[in-house]
Write a structure and sequence with these properties.
- A hairpin with a 5-residue loop joins strand 5 (about 250-260) and strand 6.
- The chain contains 7 helices and 11 strands.
- The chain is α+β, with helices and mostly antiparallel strands.
- The strands form 2 sheets. Strands 3, 5, 6, 8, 9 and 11 form a 6-stranded antiparallel sheet that branches. A 5-stranded antiparallel sheet has the order 2-1-4-10-7, with no helix packed on it.
- About 40% of the residues lie in helices and about 20% in strands.
- Helix 1 runs antiparallel to helix 2, helix 1 (about 20-50) runs antiparallel to helix 6 (about 120-150) and helix 2 (about 55-75) runs parallel beside helix 6 (about 120-150).
Length: about 350
């Protein structure tokens, strides 16, 4: 069948001609014979293994006779006679392939039957020869069925099998692509924004000196200002911002402000690029984790970041500020595979 024929659509089974019906019956007969032959070969193996030589010889003779009859009738297309000697049988085969197969087992077919006094060692050899002969005949006749007994129904089934496989493969590809896309491009899930207050530049971030806000994902992509109250701290030398707690989040911090007790601005800082396209005051940045730069660096434009792990944070240091009361951070969040609408 040509490759293009596999892609033709045909929903109804073809109606077989009388000749094709005969081919179907012949193919079914061949298949049934091979199944029965292998069943008897298995019985011979079991009998030999259990030392039942007499029964093994009877079934071996029966199987050998049937293999000769099967090979003769289906290659010569004429009735096999039990009166045909082994020499006449081999000489009478006109099908070269079948003749070659049987000629390779001359020792097996040279006698009319296996003698009753055959010992166990010889029976095991005969069993092996029968298995090899049956395997060779099976290969020949399966090739014969595929080439000579092919019908419109076989072509229909082959086409249906290929088309079904393609549909399944396409469906799996679509599902895999969708799952892969959703894995690599997840929606913005509920996340938190935490700020740690650092009294000293070499101070360790402590939970008791921090404040957590829930990120308002209903306003994803929009600027939102989050307030982080400060208590029990005399001075502030830096902050560690944990802007999310999951991966694949794009964010941009416009600025943060530190306010006093009367909400006066004590310090303010933009997170942007300088005129050279480098992070402004980059020497003031401290440890950063699970964050990478996102988007293009443009002079005087805000820095965009993307979370690449479960514990992203950014540390910024500044000169010590006395009596801070709160930190305000203006930030926006969106999925990493999307872009902000400026």
């Amino acid at each position: 069948m040509a490759i293009k024929d596999y892609f033709k659509l045909q929903l109804r089974k073809p109606v077989l001609s009388e000749e094709e019906k005969t081919k179907v019956k012949e193919a079914e007969h061949i298949q049934k014979f091979l199944e029965n032959a292998y069943s008897r070969l298995e019985s011979i193996e079991i009998l030999n293994a259990n030392g039942k030589s007499t029964d093994a010889i009877l079934i071996s003779n029966s199987l050998l006779g049937d293999l000769r009859k099967f090979g003769y009738e289906f290659s010569e297309k004429k009735t096999y006679s039990n009166s045909i000697s082994n020499a006449q049988f081999l000489a009478g085969l006109s099908n070269s392939e079948v003749k070659t197969i049987f000629a390779n087992f001359t020792d097996l077919i040279q006698n009319d039957s296996i003698p009753e006094n055959t010992n166990e060692e010889e029976l095991e050899k005969i069993e092996g020869s029968l298995a090899d002969l049956l395997s060779s005949l099976e290969k020949h006749f399966k090739k014969h069925v595929k080439k000579e007994l092919l019908t419109a129904l076989d072509l229909f089934k082959s086409r249906l099998k290929v088309q079904s496989g393609l549909v399944v493969a396409l469906a799996l590809c679509i599902v895999f692509s969708f799952v892969n896309y959703r894995t690599n491009n997840p929606d913005l899930l509920q996340t938190k924004f935490q700020v740690f207050f650092l009294e000293e530049k070499d101070g360790i971030p402590l939970q008791k000196l921090s404040f957590v806000n829930d990120v308002d994902i209903s306003k994803k992509g929009q600027w939102v200002t989050y307030e982080f109250p400060i208590s029990s701290i005399r001075q502030l030398s830096g902050i560690r911002m944990d802007p999310a707690d999951n991966r694949k989040v794009r964010l941009s911090i416009e600025n943060f402000q530190i306010l006093g007790d009367k909400d006066q601005i004590l310090f303010e800082r933009r997170i942007d690029y300088d005129q050279a396209g480098l992070p402004r005051l980059q020497e003031s940045f401290g440890p950063m984790n699970d964050l990478k730069l996102a988007g293009k660096s443009k002079p005087n434009q805000l820095i965009e970041l993307e979370t690449i792990g479960e514990d992203p944070y950014l540390t910024v240091f500044f000169d010590s500020i006395k009596s801070p009361k709160k930190v305000l951070v203006k930030v926006r969040h969106i999925e990493a595979h999307k872009k902000f609408k400026d």
